[in-house]
Design brief:
With about 800 residues, the protein is α/β, with parallel strands linked by helices. It contains 32 helices and 25 strands. Helices cover about 50% and strands about 15% of the residues. Strand 11 and strand 12 form a beta hairpin. It is globular and about 90 Å long. About 50% of the residues are buried. It binds ligand 26V. Belongs to the glycogen phosphorylase family.
Length: about 800
C-alpha cells in the first residue's frame, strides 16, 4: 500500500470509503489522520508479529524498561519517517490536495510524562527498536497526560489534558492478556509440607488491561512494544450499588492522571497504588511470557533484564520476590539471587526533596505482603552491614531501607539491583562521592555512568528537515545510521557556501517560529534578532529567575541609554510549573509581567522582546529547537543531573550559555571552551558552599548596584502594579538567602551575555561555532546511550 503514490492513493480512498462511508469530498482532516494511522498499523502488523516471533526463536536475553512516564509526543510523522514512507505519503496526499503537515496537527501529543525522565524513556524506545534490540517499555495508560497550560493575565491555569478523547489509533487493546492486582486486605500464614506459606485474603482486586503500542525502528523490520496498562474493575459482584460505584471510581482513578510531581501529600496513596499497579502487572506479564517459553524459573535472570527508570517502579524488587517465593515456591536465597541479578536502576536526580520515601502507616495496609518482604530484605541487609561495620549504628541507621517510620525507595533500589547508574559523568560522581557514598563503599561494582542521549531521528531528522538535507548533501547520509559521523562537518567550518546555507536554514526556521509566536501570543518578533531560548520545566534550581533578572537589567540599561549598541534579542520561554508549586508559578507571572512591559515600550525600539510560549510540550518543542540561536542551560551547578534539552539545541546548531552542570560539561569537553559560553560557579564550589552554610546574598545586593536595582524592582511595582505580587521571589533572594545562588552568579552571567552579543556580530565566527556544535552532537544520540546500556548493563544483543 505504500510502494508508490498511486497504490497509496487508491488504498487511502478505498479505506476512507469503507471505514467512514464517506466520499473524499465529505471527509475531514480528522478522518484522514485516522485512516492514515490505521494504514500504518496494518502495514507494520506483520513485522510486529515477526519481531516477537524472532525474539522467541532466538532465545536471546530481553530487557523490559519500566517507567512511570513515557513522553512520546506525536507518532504519525515520526512513524512515517522511520518506515521510510513519508515521501510517498506526502506526495500522494498532495495529489489529493491534502497537506500532510495539516493532518499531523490533528494528533494529540501523548504527553504521558513530566519532562526529562519521561522523554528519555521515549527516546530510548526509539533507539532500542532502531538498533534491533529486544527491549520493550511498560508504563501506565493515563487517561489524562500532563495538564494543558493556559496563560491568563500572566498566570498559569491548568486544564485536564484529553489525548484519548478521539480514540487512539496506535494502541491495540488486549483484554485476553489482562492480569489482576491486589491491594489492601491481610496476609494469612500457614504451613504446607513443613514450609511457611502466605496467602492474601480480603484484598481489593484491580484488573490491569494492556494496551500495546508498536515501537517502529528506523529503516528496519523491528517493531518492539510499549505496553501501557489501564486500570479497570475486576468484577462488579460487590454487595450493593453504592459499593460498586465506589469500587469502580477507586479503581479507575489509578490510571486516570499522570502526577505533575509528587511534591504534595494529597494523593500519596494513589501515587503508591499507581507504582504498584505498574510493577505488578508488568512482572506478572513478563513471568507469564517467560514460563510459556522456558521451563526453569531459576534461569530467569539469564533471559530477562528489568530496568527501573528512577525509583518509581522500585517495587519491582519485592514484587519479583513475592512471585518467586509465593507462586514459584523458591527459597529466599534462590529468589534473592535471581532478583538481584535481574533488576538495574537509573537515578535521575540528587535533589533530596525528589527522593521517594513512604510512611509505613500508608504503605503497610495498602501492600501488606510487599511490606513484609521489604522488612525481610531490610533485616538481612542491616545484618550484613552489622557484620561489616560492627557497632556503627549511625551508618546502619543511615543506610537502612526502613527507618524513622519510612520506607526509602532509593535504598531498596541500591540493595536489590545489580547496576546503579547516573545520567551524566558529574552526576554519577556526585552519587558516588556524596549522595550515595555509603552505598558506593559497600557496592562499588554496581555504580556506573550512562550519559543521556536523544533520538536524532525525532530531534533532527523530523524536527529540522532543512538542516537534515543540508547535512546529507554535505557529508552523505551515513550519519543517520552512525550519528558520530556528523563530525565530518568539521571539515566545512571554513566553507562559506556551507555556512551561508546553515545561516539561511536557521533564518527560515526562525521565521516559522516567529509566525507561531505571532499566532499564539500576538507578539511580532524580528527573526533577525538573536533567539535566546529557555524551555524546560519550571523549577527554582533551573534558574529561569536568573534569566529574567538579566532581561530586567538589560531593559534598565536600554532605558538609561536608548542608543545602547546591543544586538536585538528575543527571549523565549516555555515552562510548565507543577500546579502546587507556588513559587514556580510566581516566576511564570514575573516573566509575563516583564514581557508586557518590555514588549510595549516603544522607547527601546524593539531591541529586546520577551515571549512566554504557553503549553510547552513535545510537538511545540519540535518547532523551537531548530529556531534557537542561544540555548539557556543555567541550572545551579550540581543540581541538573544531565539535561537533555541542552543536547537537542546543540544538535540543531544553537550555542549554549551554560553552567558546568550535568551534560553541559561533556558538551564543553567535546566542543572546547571556544565553542560554548560557560559561566558561574562550578559544582564543587556550590557543594562546598552548601557545606559551609551558604553565602550572604544581601552582600551582593548591597554591593552591586545593578543587582540592587533589579531586585528592588520586584518590590516597587515597576513591573506590576499590585503590591506584593513578587514578594515570594524577593524573599527567596534576600530573606531565604538565595539557595540557588542567583545573585552570586549574576555578574558572571551578565558578562557571558556580553560575550554572546559580541560574538554574534561576527556572523562567520558564530556560524563556525554552530558547525562545531552540530558536528560534535552525534555523541548525544540516544543510540550511543542505548548501546552502552545494552552492552554494559543489560547484556542484550541485536536481533540480526
Ligand atoms: C522531581 C521532583 C519531585 C518533587 C519536587 C521537586 C522535584 C524536582 C525534580 C524532580 C525530577 C525527577 C526526576 C527527573 O525527571 N530527572 C531528570 O531526568 C532527566 C533524564 O535523566 C535529566 O536529564 C534531568 O537533568 C533530570 O532532572
Amino acid at each position: 500500500m505504500f510502494t508508490n503514490k498511486e497504490a497509496f492513493k487508491t488504498y487511502f480512498l478505498q479505506k476512507l470509503e469503507m471505514t467512514y462511508g464517506k466520499t473524499f469530498e465529505d471527509s475531514t482532516s480528522s478522518d484522514h489522520f485516522q485512516i492514515l494511522g490505521h494504514m500504518i498499523r496494518e502495514y507494520v502488523s506483520t513485522n510486529w508479529i515477526n519481531t516477537n516471533e524472532a525474539y522467541r526463536r532466538n532465545q536471546g536475553k530481553q530487557v523490559y524498561y519500566l517507567s512511570i512516564e513515557f513522553l512520546l509526543g506525536r507518532l504519525l510523522y515520526h512513524n512515517l519517517i522511520n518506515l521510510g514512507i513519508e515521501k510517498v505519503v506526502t506526495e500522494g496526499l498532495n495529489e489529493l490536495g491534502i497537506n500532510l503537515r495539516d493532518i499531523e496537527e490533528i494528533e494529540h501529543d501523548a504527553g504521558l510524562g513530566n519532562g526529562g525522565l519521561g522523554r528519555l524513556a521515549a527516546c530510548f524506545l526509539d533507539s532500542l527498536a532502531t538498533l534491533n534490540l529486544p527491549g520493550h517499555g511498560f508504563g501506565i495508560r493515563y487517561k489524562h497526560g500532563l495538564f494543558e497550560q493556559r496563560i491568563v493575565d500572566g498566570y498559569q491555569i491548568e486544564l485536564p489534558e484529553q489525548w484519548l478523547k478521539h480514540g487512539q489509533v496506535w494502541e491495540v487493546r488486549k483484554e485476553d492478556l489482562a492480569v489482576d492486582i491486589q491491594f489492601w486486605g491481610n496476609i494469612d500464614m500457614y504451613e504446607k509440607d513443613g514450609k511457611l506459606q502466605f496467602r492474601h485474603l480480603n484484598a481489593e482486586t484491580v484488573t490491569a488491561v494492556p494496551h500495546d503500542v508498536p515501537v517502529i525502528g528506523y529503516d528496519t523490520t523491528t517493531v518492539n512494544t510499549l505496553r501501557l496498562w489501564n486500570a479497570e474493575p475486576a468484577s462488579l459482584l460487590a454487595k450493593d450499588v453504592n459499593d460498586i460505584m465506589r469500587y469502580k471510581r477507586e479503581t479507575e482513578k489509578i490510571s486516570e492522571f499522570l502526577y505533575p510531581d509528587d511534591a504534595n501529600d494529597e494523593g500519596k496513596i494513589l501515587r503508591l497504588k499507581q507504582q504498584y499497579f505498574l510493577v505488578s502487572s508488568s512482572l506478572q506479564s513478563i513471568i507469564k511470557n517467560y514460563k510459556q517459553q522456558y521451563k526453569d524459573i531459576r534461569n530467569f535472570h539469564q533471559h530477562i533484564s528489568i530496568h527501573i527508570n528512577d525509583t518509581h517502579p522500585v517495587l519491582a524488587i519485592p514484587e519479583l520476590m513475592r512471585i518467586l517465593l509465593d507462586n514459584e515456591e523458591l527459597s529466599w536465597e534462590e529468589a534473592w539471587e535471581i532478583t538481584k541479578n535481574t533488576i538495574s536502576y537509573t537515578n535521575h536526580t540528587t535533589l533530596s526533596e525528589a527522593l521517594e520515601k513512604w510512611p509505613i502507616y500508608l504503605f503497610q495496609p495498602l501492600l501488606p505482603r510487599i511490606y513484609m518482604i521489604i522488612q525481610e530484605i531490610n533485616e538481612r541487609f542491616c545484618n550484613e552491614l552489622w557484620d561489616k561495620h560492627p557497632g556503627d549504628f549511625h551508618k546502619i541507621e543511615n543506610m537502612a531501607i526502613i527507618a524513622h517510620g519510612m520506607v526509602k525507595m532509593a535504598h531498596l533500589a541500591l540493595v536489590g539491583s545489580y547496576s546503579v547508574n547516573g545520567v551524566a559523568e558529574i552526576h554519577t560522581e556526585i552519587l558516588k562521592k556524596r549522595e550515595m557514598s555509603d552505598f558506593y563503599q559497600v557496592f562499588p561494582e554496581k555504580f556506573n555512568n550512562k550519559t543521556n542521549g536523544i533520538t536524532h531521528r525525532r530531534w533532527l531528522i523530523k524536527a529540522n528537515p532543512k538542516l537534515t538535507q543540508l547535512v546529507t548533501d554535505t557529508i552523505g547520509s551515513e550519519w543517520i545510521y552512525q550519528p558520530d559521523q556528523l563530525n565530518k562537518l568539521l571539515l566545512f567550518q571554513q566553507d562559506n557556501g556551507f555556512l551561508q546555507q546553515l545561516a539561511s536554514i536557521k533564518q527560515e526556521n526562525k521565521i516559522h517560529l516567529a509566525e507561531i509566536i505571532k499566532e499564539s501570543n500576538g507578539i511580532t518578533v524580528d527573526p533577525t534578532s538573536i533567539f535566546d531560548v529557555q524551555v524546560k520545566r519550571l523549577h527554582a534550581y533551573k534558574r529561569q529567575l536568573l534569566n529574567v533578572l538579566h532581561i530586567m537589567h538589560l531593559y534598565n540599561r536600554l532605558k538609561e541609554n536608548p542608543t545602547l549598541d546591543i544586538t536585538p534579542r528575543t527571549f523565549i520561554f516555555g515552562a510548565k510549573a507543577s500546579p502546587g508549586y507556588y513559587y514556580a508559578k510566581k516566576i511564570i507571572k514575573l516573566i509575563n509581567a516583564v514581557a508586557d512591559k518590555v514588549n510595549n515600550d516603544k522607547t527601546i525600539q524593539d531591541k529586546i522582546k520577551v515571549v512566554f510560549l504557553e503549553n510547552y510540550r513535545v510537538s511545540l518543542a519540535e518547532h523551537i529547537f531548530p529556531a534557537a540561536d542561544v540555548s539557556e542551560q543555567i541550572s545551579t551547578a550540581s543540581k541538573e543531573a544531565s539535561g537533555t534539552g541542552n543536547m537537542k539545541f546543540m544538535m540543531n546548531g544553537a550555542l549554549t550559555v551554560g553552567t558546568l552542570d550535568g551534560a553541559n560539561i561533556e558538551m564543553r569537553d567535546l566542543v572546547g571552551d571556544d565553542n560554548i559560553f560557560i559561566f558561574g560557579m562550578n559544582a564543587d564550589e556550590v557543594l562546598d558552599l552548601y557545606q559551609h552554610g551558604g553565602y550572604r546574598s544581601t552582600e551582593y545586593y548591597h554591593h552591586d548596584k545593578r543587582i540592587k536595582e533589579v531586585v528592588d524592582q520586584l518590590k516597587n511595582g515597576f513591573f506590576h502594579d499590585t503590591n506584593n505580587e513578587f514578594d515570594p521571589i524577593f524573599d527567596s533572594l534576600l530573606i531565604e538567602n538565595d539557595q540557588y545562588f542567583v545573585l552570586k552568579d549574576f555578574h558572571s552571567y551578565e558578562n557571558i551575555h556580553q560575550v554572546v552579543d559580541q560574538t554574534y556580530k561576527n556572523q562567520q565566527k558564530w556560524l563556525q561555532m554552530c558547525t562545531v556544535n552540530i558536528a560534535k552532537s552525534g555523541h548525544f544520540s540516544s543510540d550511543r546511550t542505548i548501546k552502552e546500556y545494552a552492552d554494559e548493563i543489560w547484556k542484550i544483543k541485536s536481533n540480526f
